[in-house]
Write a structure and sequence with these properties.
With about 400 residues, the protein is mainly alpha-helical. The chain has helices spanning about 25-35, 50-55, 65-80, 85-95, 100-115, 120-125, 135-145, 150-205, 210-225, 225-245, 250-260, 265-285, 290-300, 305-320, 325-330, 335-345, 350-370, 370-405; strands spanning about 5-10, 15-20, 40-45.
Length: about 400
């Protein structure tokens, strides 16, 4: 999405300016109004730069800024703000204490931006690859409401939760990926070293070979003679896959397919919805309007398919529908969650119930991960059994036929 430079007045009447990402100038204006800023001028702008000192560092040797750095930054800023330390002094201390040199340069750039008269949210927006749009918007809301220290703490817990869920999903995919990779490597070793040794023995039989044996020998010969073609096809397939998944339609299709993967797909779906519920609860507790909150959450959900469903919810709420009805139309929530959303709308405690939904989904993910091995083992055993059966028939059938012929 394009970036827009804006100028506006906050609740105190002070002039504020910065850069925001949005679909159009109307969407940016809605974000500003939702955070208590009255826009004066909005114009399309180039993508914000990361800062000269960061850009000069060669990318090969540049230290990476991780989500953990931003998470610790939020926690430290909360502690310093709670203690009454002025923000410039706090940033100066953080710049000198952080061990990540790249992040220290970013903090130094934030301090320089504040020195020049910018608000913290506008300074954070100059580093979109470090601080997400969600993070910037939450800080902007904290500046407008005077609850910046609480926003820092909520952002810390939110990022800690997201990091935990992301690690859980990676753990869910690590075991099956390792087993499948091991099976593929074993097949290549068998084709290159084991089957050729048996093929030399079978040629001495001077007898017709069974179909399974002929298939195995043909596959082995093809692998040995044309391995570079196989390698080229694999590398090309990986390249095409990465290119396709980087396109909007390819990313959408891949994210939708991930949700249908046996066993692991359910875990990915539940973990993504847990992040959605926690992000939505955080935005509502921080005073963000529902429409703006759904827009921000759609940008932060790490799944394009779920993000599209959230955007559909936003469009429904914009038309005047209830959150419950839009959630039902999304088709991704369980009946229990829909009942909780209905109760939250009736009682006005939707933010608290969204937190409960996130906790429930988190417990579901942890339970599914504990039972992942028992769920996936039958599938892997069947796959290994089929592989062993094919190899056994191909290797031992000729020997069995030969021994039977000798007995006769």
């Amino acid at each position: 999405m394009p970036f827009f430079a804006y100028k506006g007045r906050n609740a105190a009447g002070s002039l504020v300016q910065g850069v925001l990402e949005g679909a159009d100038s109307g969407a940016v204006a809605a974000q500003l109004l939702g955070s208590g800023i009255t826009p004066v001028d909005i114009s399309e702008s180039a993508t914000p730069k990361q800062g000269k000192s960061v850009a000069k560092t060669p990318s090969l040797f540049k230290e990476k800024i991780t989500a953990l750095d931003v998470m610790l930054f939020s926690r430290q800023m909360y502690t310093l703000s709670k203690a009454g330390v002025p923000i410039l002094r706090a940033l100066n201390g953080l710049q000198g204490s952080t061990t990540n040199k790249a992040f220290a340069r970013v903090v130094g750039d934030l301090r320089q931006s504040l020195d020049s008269g910018r608000e913290l949210s506008a300074a954070l927006a100059q580093h979109p690859k470090v601080f997400s749009q969600f993070f910037v918007s939450m800080v902007r809301v904290g500046e407008g409401t005077g609850m910046l220290d609480q926003v820092y703490l909520r952002l810390f817990h939110h990022m800690e939760f997201e990091r935990f869920m992301r690690e859980q999903v990676k753990a869910a995919l690590r075991y099956p990926s390792f087993v499948v990779a091991a099976m593929i490597i074993a097949l290549f070793i068998i084709n290159i070293f084991v089957i050729p040794a048996f093929a030399k023995v079978f040629k001495g039989f001077n007898a017709p070979l069974p179909i399974f044996t002929r298939i195995l020998i043909a596959t082995s010969e093809f692998t040995i003679n044309y391995w570079y073609y196989i390698l080229g096809v694999v590398v090309g397939a990986v390249f095409v896959f990465r290119w396709y998944t980087n396109t909007p339609i390819g990313r959408l299709k891949w994210d939708e397919f991930k949700l249908t993967i046996p066993v692991a797909g359910k875990i990915i779906r539940v973990a993504t919805l847990a992040r959605f519920a926690r992000s939505f609860a955080l935005s509502m507790k921080s005073g963000v309007q529902v429409l703006q909150g759904l827009t921000l959450v759609a940008q932060t959900v790490d799944n394009t398919f779920i993000a599209k469903k959230v955007e559909g919810m936003r469009a429904g709420v914009e038309r005047g529908e209830t959150i419950l009805r839009t959630a039902v139309n999304a088709g991704v929530f369980t009946p229990v969650v829909l009942q909780m959303i209905a109760v939250g709308e009736e009682t006005g405690a939707l933010d608290d119930l969204m937190d409960e939904i996130a906790e429930m989904y988190q417990r579901d993910v942890e339970y599914d991960l504990k039972n992942l091995a028992s769920q996936i083992e039958p599938i892997l055993i069947v796959a290994l059994g089929v592989l062993v059966l094919i190899l056994a028939l191909g290797v031992f059938l000729p020997i069995w036929d030969l021994s039977r012929a000798i007995r006769h």
